[in-house]
Write a structure and sequence with these properties.
Helix content is 61%, strand content 3%. The chain has 138 residues and is an all-alpha fold.
Length: 138
């Protein structure tokens, strides 16, 4: 199920109209429909968090990282997940522009801290690839 499908399904599950969700978020009804139709594919975390709150769920559920009970994919059913896709999703939600909503040790993360986190993620993927390549070459 996509993020868009999860948003729509959760709204309907709660028997909420798009108008109610839009009012609570301070956006237009058409914006909610654009979220639900997948017209807006990479929604920033500062949109996902309040949307999840209105829909009484977690950002992880809306993003497909956990099921409705809050279990992660690994804890529920095994499936293949592309590391590249997961890292791309994380990176799209971690940007200096989001520093007012991203917290580090209970305080807003600085742009430098966000840049360091982005770098660590990409470096980690590069290192994992190298390790897998070396393992394969053995």
């Amino acid at each position: 199920m996509t993020t868009a499908e999860r948003i729509k399904a959760r709204r309907k599950e709660l028997d909420m109209s798009a108008d109610v969700v839009a009012d609570k978020l301070g956006v237009s009804r058409s914006t909610i429909f654009r979220y639900e139709n997948g017209d807006i594919e990479k929604m920033p975390i500062d949109v996902i968090r309040p949307l999840a709150k209105v829909l009484r769920t977690t950002p992880g559920y809306l993003l497909g990282l956990e099921d409705a009970e809050g279990r992660t994919e690994a804890e529920s059913t095994p499936s293949e997940i592309s590391i590249d896709e997961e890292v791309d999703m994380l990176l799209s939600n971690i940007s200096p522009a989001s520093s007012s909503t991203l917290m580090l040790d209970g305080k807003p993360a600085s742009p430098e801290a966000i840049a360091a986190l982005r770098s660590a993620l990409t470096t980690g993927v590069t290192m994992a690839r190298q390790m897998e390549k070396e393992k394969k070459d053995e």
